Amino acid sequence: MADAYGTITFTKSSDCTLDSAALIDALNSFKWSSDEVSWVLDEEDSRISINSWSPQYPVAIPEFDELIHIKNEDGTWTTHKASDVNEDEIESTYTYTVSPYPLATLSQRLSQHINSGWIEIACVANEKTRYVYFQSLRIHSDGRSSKINTWTGPWVESINEQESYVPSN
Q: Cα(147)–Cα(138) distance, rounded to whole angstroms?
């Protein structure tokens, strides 16, 4: 089985001021790769980064488990909202459908820790010669946000998505 390995970067605008500890806590409430990386602060240079040199299936646009598909004893499958299923209901056979967090959610949860300027999280990865992808998430202190999601290669349908969010304050 092939795996997609890559990297995740964090950068900020030159005028950015933020509450690093609170932002890191908020960032760590999301899943950024299949191998559960964490965001950390380098005390020497106040740089935020992930604690892995080569995360598996990294993302800059975090996803959540939206649906869970459970195989019943009779071989049929049932689908439930993941938030409605508890551990006792899950037997040994199940799969998930994941969805990206909406930009409004990401903006609300992250922008509150940015006093001025913006932050950007970006990732790039590839799975051998099957596909490559790039993602970018930019969050501004005023709640504006944007994302880029680009995938290409012979094993995927090409994607070139760009989306913006502006809060209605």
A: 6
Extract the residue ranges of the chain whose pLDDT is less than 70: 1-2, 66, 82-83, 85-94, 96, 169
Task: Please name which of 5, 9, 7, 1 lies closest in space to residue 119, comparing C-alpha atoms.
Answer: 9
Nearest to 61 by CA among 116, 120, 1: 120
User: For the residues of the chain, what is the DSSP string, one character each?
Assistant: ----EEEEEEEE-TT-EE-HHHHHHHHTTS--STT---EEEETTTTEEEES-SS-BS--SS-EEEEEEEEE-TTS-EEEEEGGG--GGG--S-EEEEEEEPPHHHHHHHHHTTEEESEEEEEEEEEETTTEEEEEEEEEETTS-EEEEEEEESTTS--EEEEEEE----
pTM: predicted TM-score of the whole model, two decimal places: 0.84
What does pLDDT average to over the chain?
A: 88
* Domain ranges (residues) in the chain: 5-62+101-165, 65-97
